[in-house]
Design goal:
It contains 1 helix and 14 strands. With about 270 residues, it is mostly beta strands.
Amino acid sequence: MLTRYEIVYQGKNELWELWEAVFDDSGKFISKLKVQIRPVDNLIFLMRRLIFLIALLFIIKTSAAQDKQIFFTGIFPEISLTKKISQRNKLNFKVENQEVIFDNRDTEFENPQFTHYRTDLMLFFDRSLRPGVSVALGVFHRFQDNEDGNRIIQQLALLQRLRNLRINHRFRTDQTFTRNDDIELRFRYRFSVEIPLEGDEVDPTEFYLVISEEPIFSGKGGEFEIENRTAIALGKLFNSNEKLEWAVDYRTDGFIQEGFRTRLWAKISYYYNF
C-alpha cells in the first residue's frame, strides 16, 4: 500500500488543504481531507491592527503638532511595463517621477512652483508559486538632490477573491544604500481592494476603483520611524494588456522622530503588459 501527502490550494475559499492520498493493492485511489488551514490569516489580522494603531497615532500626532508640520504637494506620473518570460516568470520595469508644485518650507521660491523632487527606476523579477501567490526580487535606483540611492527589494504578494472584489496583500522588505549615510531597513505591508464599477468583474473598456493602505516601518542609524500611505485610484482597463489609473496619494511620516511630514500627490499611472 502506497501512502503520500500533498497540499492543495483552493482559490474559492482561500484555504490550504492537507489531503491523505492512499492507493490500495488493486490500484484503487482513496482520498481523505485531513485539515484546512489559513496560513496567512493571523499575519493579515495583525497587519490590520497595525494599520488601526497608525491611524490613531496620526490623529494624536497631527493634533499635537499643528504648527510644526511639513507639507508639500505635486504631481506623480509613473509607467509600469511587464514582460512575461515564461508561464510562471515575468519581468517588471517601472519609472516614477515626483515634481513639487507647493512646499510650505520654501521661502526662496514662489508658490506655485515646479521643482524636481526625485526619480525612481525599478526592475523586478516575479515568480508565481501558485494561483494567487507570488514572490519577487527587485533592484531600485533613485535620482535625487545630494546623493542618489540604491535599494534591494524582496516581495511576497497574495491575492484573495471575495465575490466581485480583488483583495491584494503585498509584503515587502527592502534595504536602501546611500553614500555617506547609514543603511535603511524597512518592512512594508500594503492592503488594497479593487472594486468593479460596471459589473461583477472588470472587463475591457470598463472602469474600476482601487483603495489601498500601506504602513511602512523603518530603521536607520539606530532610529525607528513609521510612514503611512493611503491612496484611492480610478482606473480604466483598455484591454487585457493595458490600463490607466488616476489617483490621490496621501503620505505621512515623522510619527516617531521630529519633523512630521504630510505629502499629497496627484498620481497618474500607466500599465502595459506584453
